[in-house]
Design goal:
Low-confidence stretches: 7-16
Radius of gyration: 22 Å
Mean pLDDT: 93
CATH superfamily: Ferritin, core subunit, four-helix bundle
CATH topology: Ferritin
Strand order of the largest sheet: 1-2
Protein name: 1,2-phenylacetyl-CoA epoxidase subunit A
Structural class: mainly alpha
CATH class: Mainly Alpha
Shape: globular
GO cellular component, one term: cytosol
CATH architecture: Up-down Bundle
Distance between the termini: 27 Å
Largest sheet: 2 strands, antiparallel
Order of helices and strands: HHHHHHHHHHEEHHH
Helix content: 55-70%
Bound molecules: Phenylacetyl coenzyme A
Number of helices: 13
Oligomer: single chain
Number of domains: 1
GO molecular function, one term: phenylacetyl-CoA 1,2-epoxidase activity
InterPro entries: Aromatic_CoA_ox/epox, Ferritin-like, Ferritin-like_SF, PaaA, PaaA_PaaC
Strand content: under 5%
Length: about 325
């Protein structure tokens, strides 16, 4: 999308100008301080470029791995309407992955390199997608809590300093908003159903609440990518976003008629926020480190998709080569 007509200055084969230069740096900092966007052909410090490749590609990987827990339920959706909604949602997540890979490519890295980093386990993807979807209510809870957390994190990214990432986020957030609503609607319907359905919803909420809170990443004191805020990539810190999410979600849980599995969850008048219990960081780091319930299955599914798609990539290259020869002959 972004990358097709990108010709990079200074004669480099790909990627922006990498030479470090104090004048360029001053210009770059001034643009960031003024709230402007950095575009692919602009000079940028190498560390900024690397941080963006890391974050955008991990975000892209999260989207396409995130298709799996819900994709698993498409054939088992209880009605045609729910099947159509779920199919559209899962396709949207695949689309988000594609915008994000394209945005990362504008930074001078190839799709193959990014994909190789995912499949070899070098690059991370969101911890949340390593939990299993055990019952139909999980699909509603993913929409409500996981997409809800994703929107909370991604709205500020619409104003991030890197133009292609910020622009991709605008459309992604609109679609995530639909995802969140369809999930909440699904749960509202189930809560109006039988006792067994209400129990399924509560069970799903109990299992997904803490992993959703963990999605925002480690506490600020343990967050290592501090340059990200200075460069206007991350505009709100992990803990502040997590707090905003908890504050917004408690009321939604009340309306739904479910309890949140945290006895320490309590409104704090002095802070003007909800207090909540301690997060199990051992569990978080274990899942991030590859030892969650579904890490192995998720990567195996992505590897299979990559292998099964080899003929498509080969056909596309053959077509492009044929086209290029014809163009040369016609010239
Ligand atoms: N899982 O220094 P920080 C979605 C890592 S999309 C795994 O605080 P940073 C849509 C972090 O990478 C969900 N790893 O890092 C959807 C770093 O390791 P590294 C994805 C995590 O980057 C819905 C280390 O810990 N969203 O859900 C996690 O400043 C439904 C230290 O952390 C994005 O990617 C985690 N949860 O802040 C799809 C949004 N948290 O890289 C399908 C963009 C932290 O040095 C169905 N990303 N780590 O090896 C961000 O906003 C940031 O990257 C954070 C982390 C906030 C995730």
């Amino acid at each position: 999308m972004y990358t097709q007509s990108l010709s990079i200055p200074d004669g480099e084969a790909k990627g922006p100008r990498k030479v470090e230069n104090p004048d360029y740096l001053a210009e770059f900092n001034a643009k960031i301080d003024a709230g402007g966007f950095i575009e692919p052909k602009d000079w940028m410090p190498e560390a900024y470029r690397k941080t963006l490749i890391r974050q955008i590609s991990q975000h892209a990987h999260s989207e396409i791995v995130g298709m799996l827990p819900e994709g698993n339920w498409i054939t088992r959706a209880p009605s045609l309407k729910r099947k159509a909604i779920l199919l559209a949602k899962v396709q949207d997540e695949g689309g988000h992955g594609l915008y994000l890979y394209a945005a990362a490519e504008t930074l001078g890295v190839s799709r193959d390199e990014l994909y190789e980093a995912l499949l070899s386990g070098k690059a991370k993807y969101s911890s949340i997608f390593n939990y299993p979807t055990l019952n139909w209510a999980d699909i509603g809870v993913i929409g409500w809590l996981v997409d809800g957390a994703a929107i909370m994190n991604q709205i500020p990214l619409c104003k991030c300093s890197y133009g292609p990432y910020a622009r991709a986020m605008i459309r992604v957030c609109k679609e995530e908003s639909f995802h969140q609503r369809q999930g909440y609607d699904l749960l509202l319907q189930m809560m109006k159903g039988t006792e067994e359905q209400r129990e399924m919803v509560q069970d799903a909420v109990n299992r997904w609440w803490w992993p959703s809170i963990m999605m925002f990443g480690p506490h600020d004191k343990d967050s290592v990518h501090t340059d990200s805020a200075r460069w206007g990539i991350k505009r709100i810190s992990n803990d502040d976003l997590r707090q905003k999410f908890v504050d917004a979600t408690v009321k939604q849980a009340e309306v739904l008629g479910v309890s949140l599995p945290d006895p320490a969850l309590k409104w704090n008048e002095a802070r003007g926020h909800y207090d909540f219990g301690a997060i199990d960081w051992d569990e978080f780091w274990s899942v991030v480190g590859g030892n969650g319930q579904c890490n192995v299955d998720r990567l195996a599914a992505r590897q299979k998709a990559w292998d099964d798609g080899a003929w498509v990539r080969e056909a596309a290259i053959a077509h492009a080569e044929k086209h290029s020869v014809r163009q040369q002959q016609a010239a």
